[in-house]
Amino acid sequence: MYLYGYVKIALLVVGLVSSITAKSQENLEKSLLWKVYGNGVIDTTYLYGTIHAIEKKDFILTNQVKRTFKATESLVLEVPLEMDEATKKELAKKIMYPAGKSIKNYISEADYTYYQSYMKDTLKMGVIKVKICDMMQPFFAQSLILMEQLDNIQSYEKSFDKMAKKKEKLALETIEQQLAIVTGDSIELQVAQFIRDLKLGKLDSKKEFKVMVELYKAQDLQGLYTYIEKSMSEALTSGDKSGLTREKMLDKRNLNWIPKLEDWMSKKSLFVAVGAGHLAGENGLIHLLRNKGYKVEPVFN
Q: CA-based diameter of the chain, in Å?
């Protein structure tokens, strides 16, 4: 998969998989909602697989999910959604190129002309949006490009956060930790990969995103996981050098989350809403929790 493809997958995980193996597959029932109990859990905890951005027409929250959410004490998300002004300013710095630079400082004049033409003529982006992309590091620029291809974007995380009201809100990692995952490579390497994808015509991926959305709407966690595996396999064979791997994007994060979840589950009931890509697979949360002795079962509507 090309670097832009990682942005699509990031909507399911912020997750990638480095290879396809029979061992990683688990015959999971089709459900986005899973209950966790036993082994010292004080009250039933629920896992819910999200997609971080989806068009309003495809956004669904069933009554079963709403009832389950209401019955829990605490909401757990990947990162906190509420930020103070200092954090926002620091975040803005990490999203933008350093020292007031733009993509123009990292590519040839010919590539910049091609880039401008592609953004305006092929992707039909407005002048202001293109200027914003000029200043954003590749991963974030590509996220904006994908968002521009979608209509009336909704967020499950923001919806749950709004529904939480007086619930306790917990986060599995900090924004800084999540940003470090996608900005670990040198800017030069990120830009080179971005221009490579652009020249291959791979920044327009609405059709591929639609495939993921259909799998998500079907609540097919295993199908989504297989799609991620296939995409990552294509990345390895196409010469992608972004450095984003399953270990970095999924495995290490899932393993880091387990002790936190175990601690919290022993004290309170949780509604854990994380990218759907984190649930399936050998190192997915469902399998990891089962290996720890917890009962993890699907909740059907």
A: 62
